[in-house]
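For this section, I looked closely at the sequence of one protein beside the tokens encoding its backbone, which the following lines show:
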Amino acid sequence: MQASITPKYPALFVEESTTVISPRLNAMCSPRGVFKGTREEWLEAAGLIMGTWINDALNQMGRTTYNRKKDATKFVPTTTSLKVYLAKTYGGKPKDYTFQSKTIRYATSLMGGTGINESGALAHCHFMHATGNGYHEIRMGVHVGGRKTKDDSCRVADILLHEILHTCNPRAGHKGSFGIMARTMGLEGALTSTTASDELRAKIWDEVVTRLGKYPHNAVTLTPRGKRGKGSRSIKVQCPECEFVMRTTRLWIDKAEGSLICPIGCNTVTPSAWANGGLVTVPTEMIIFGYKYEVGSNE
């Protein structure tokens, strides 16, 4: 980025990040390949880098900031630091709007329900007043991958930035102070589903992905229930007397020549020619579902 060019998002026009992440995380960086740590460690390291951008923007005096209601250009200059402006406008203390790394934990998981992404979200931020453990919990969806290309990793980082901004604005939802900070940082589009501007993406590419390496996770795609093929090859077998159920394979049904006896010990009383028309008790044969034994199939 050239100094002579006036950036669209002034908050990004700062010196290149020189954040010392930590000896542990620094040792995992792989600029030419994939990050050597876990997914959560990549998210933590990226969060530490981008958190410095957030605090820098909040501390700068007179920075141009987004405010849709006061200016048709969507940007207005502030006479104080952005965090003081937000505190005066929306309440709270200036410190409440800053990035605080020690209050955030990162994880990857499915997004809602039992499906891969039933909620349609890419990530979630659970605030500390809801988690009960004193931490904001940021969860990145497992269906969001970044291992294949740097472009994908950049997308993971801008999603992460969106969630980190929520931790700086826990009372705002997707409005008010959150909107101002999101626009100031270069997030564009609907505030519920932002994407990085060209300037923000370039900064993420240079200072996050190139420094750390690609996000160490391939996108996970689960086949919806009902579309997963035939499923288990085990065959259901049930006793008609006690309703005991078990599953087995064709191999054992064929070896038993299609006659499986209830393991509980149920007996069935049936007429018998050998008893001169009387009754005889015999072990109960189980019912086989979905498979019919054929003579010679066990040879």
Q: What stands out?
A: The chain has two domains: 10-212, 235-288.
